[in-house]
Amino acid sequence: MSIKILFDKCTGCNLCVTFCPFGAIEVKDGKAVIDLDKCNLCGACVDSCNLKAIELIKPSAAEEKISPAEARDVWIFCEQKGGLIQSVSWELLGKGRELADKLGTKLCGVLLGHNIKEKAREVFARGVDKLYLVDSPKLANYQNEPYTEVLVKLIKKYRPEVLLCGATTMGRSLISRVAVKVRAGLTADCTGLDIDTKDRLLLQTRPAFGGNIMATIITPTHRPQMATVRHKVMKEALVEEGRTGELIEEDIDESLLSSRSKLLDIVEEIEATVNLTEADIIVSGGRGMGGPENFKIVEELALVLGGAVGASRAAVDAGWMPYSHQVGQTGKTVCPKLYIACGISGQIQHLIGMQSSNSIVAINKDPEAPIFKVATYGIVDDLFKVVPLLTKRFKEVLGK
Amino acid sequence: MNIIVCIKQVPETTDVKIDPETNTLIREGVASIINPFDTYAIEEGVRLREKFGGKVTVLSMGPPQAQEALREAISVGADEGVLLSDRAFAGSDTWATSYTLAKAIEKIGAFDIILCGKQASDGDTAQVGPGISTHLDIPQVTYVKKIEEIKENAVKVERMTEGGFEIIEAPIPCLMTVVKEINEPRLPSLRGKMKARKAEIKVMTSKDLDLDPSKIGLNGSPTKVMKIFTPPPRKGGQILQGEADRVAADLVELLKSEV
């Protein structure tokens, strides 16, 4: 904490001098000057000044930062929506187990929600040793402020060494706030996490510049070491039925649960095929589709495969498909098990959004199309011929 | 209505290379642009001003050449540009960056709404927007795809989520990060370009802000880059050749185990 005079506002009126209980202020050359050796930062002068020329600089969370020596345990923020724990959390628990074992500490879960106590069983079955559970009607749905305050409170109280969270629309919004409040390092979208056992450091490897560069990031002196991981990057923790753990039901002061912004409604969009980031199989169409009506053949293939329909920016900009289907730099980043690109040339902006897919199939007339450089299997032919044939074949093979 | 739009200048392409000798990014010869996601924030700010009056201030932190990004924002309707530029800011991670930007916003003064793009195309973290609102202790709404209504003291917006959207009302002042769906950015007008050329960009250094020096730049950043490397390139695979019928059958055979 510190204090200072704003010289552009101070008129040297002497009022603060009379208010200071410690005689720490004098007026020199028409401006108040504080002797910091005498000042005990009580703030009496701040209140006395009519011109708001004195500022008490309050400590931010940084001053109470957690030291590496006192931090322990690996924490996973278990994201729930509508009472259902999201699969990204199971993936984080899979990785979290490995990290906790390397560090020789416990794997802990944090679960915020309402009427969710019965979910503890599922969390323990996925390998959690200790679960911190906060239950309140005000935590039923995600809201920035109450979720942030509760998580910050738990972190300050229990001091985890590592904290992982899904890189979802909820996770990214929440964890960035928490990191600021506890003065922790935060690394987004890690694709690799490991432990340097000597210094107990979390080695956080992530792509940057759309995957063209990889960086390994560390947080040497701040705790917890925080990272987000995208959905489908890590392998889910296996279920071990009947496994139990320690449940800690944390009481939270009601005052921490208020929110200045209000969640008025949650709208789930009907189109099930839109949820690209969840899909295991994606069939996408690009400029080569020629028009909106032709997307039908892509949709038919997606339907047979139980997959989602994607589109390149060119197809979206032409108005053939809605933006919610767009894959690529300015659209969604996806990593399905199988990505089938139909009539997509493969501009770098598109590749960024899908190149981490497990298998990529490219169908394009142009043998020089850059998409073939990343394709596991390529077919240089007319998509209008090939795609319906694929649909037919898959139908037979899958018995649909 | 006073609007502050935070923007970042990024390399035009993500196709950047590492210098194998120095292990640093090769930046020469790579053109710079406004982070594509920020262009939607600028446009939304300008639209709000056109509707409600006031001023749009664009704010950026970066090297001196980031002035160009601010001028570009002025050419499409922003009123003023402020650049935070100081060697002391170099190496800032998202914690230090959001702290420095928040301090600059306190200095700029009264605002109603802060707009940011949802993330930057080079770092892709999506952390700086929420970081700024936390440092300023104001409410935030991320991934805004539509501003439904501006009331006397609040905004009502649609926030995109994985499976649909939420409707949220946030009091003013607040910070919003926006997605592409929110609007279609305009192109600069001739008059806009003239204005941008003549505009005076205000440059602030660490001395102009009330900063805690232990929280800025590389030393003030909790995270450190241990190493950067080029990932092994994804190898192109097999090209299937022959009659379409045959090829389709072969492919289905190859993929059978994956579907």
How would you describe the overall organization of this protein?
The complex is a heterodimer of chains A (400) and B (259). Helix content of chain A is 25%, strand content 26%. Chain A is of the alpha/beta class. Chain A has three domains: 2-58, 2-Layer Sandwich (Alpha-Beta Plaits); 68-257, HUPs (Rossmann fold); 272-398, TPP-binding domain (Rossmann fold). In chain A, helix 7 (295-305) links the parallel strand 18 and strand 19. The longest helix of chain A has 17 residues, at 87-103. The model of chain A has no long low-confidence stretch (mean pLDDT 91). Chain B is an alpha/beta fold. Chain B has one domain (2-223): HUPs (Rossmann fold). Chain B has six helices and 13 strands. A nine-stranded mixed beta sheet of chain B has the order 9-8-7-10-6-1-4-5-11, with helices on both faces. Chain B has a two-stranded antiparallel ribbon with strand order 2-3. In chain B, strand 7 and strand 8 (154-161) form a beta hairpin. In chain B, helix 2 runs antiparallel to helix 5. Chain B starts with a strand and ends with a helix. The chains are: A alpha/beta (400), B alpha/beta (259). The interface between A and B is large, with 93 and 85 residues. Strand 17 of chain A pairs antiparallel with strand 9 of chain B, so a sheet runs across the interface.
Topology readout:
The complex is a heterodimer of chains A (400) and B (259).
Chain A: E1 2-5, H1 15-19, E2 25-28, E3 31-34, H2 44-48, E4 54-57, E5 74-78, E6 80-81, E7 84-85, H3 87-103, E8 107-113, H4 120-125, E9 130-135, H5 144-158, E10 162-166, H6 169-181, E11 185-187, E12 192-196, E13 201-208, E14 213-218, E15 225-229, E16 246-249, E17 262-268, E18 281-285, H7 295-305, E19 308-311, H8 313-317, E20 338-342, H9 348-354, E21 359-364, E22 377-380, H10 383-398
Parallel strand pairs in A: 5-8, 5-10, 8-9, 9-16, 10-15, 11-15, 18-19, 18-20, 20-21, 21-22
Antiparallel strand pairs in A: 1-4, 2-3, 6-7, 12-13, 13-14
Chain B: E1 2-7, E2 9-11, E3 32-34, H1 36-52, E4 55-61, H2 67-75, E5 80-84, H3 94-108, E6 113-117, H4 128-136, E7 140-150, E8 154-161, E9 164-171, E10 174-178, H5 190-198, E11 202-204, E12 224-229, E13 238-240, H6 244-255
Parallel strand pairs in B: 1-4, 1-6, 4-5, 5-11, 6-10, 7-10
Antiparallel strand pairs in B: 2-3, 7-8, 8-9
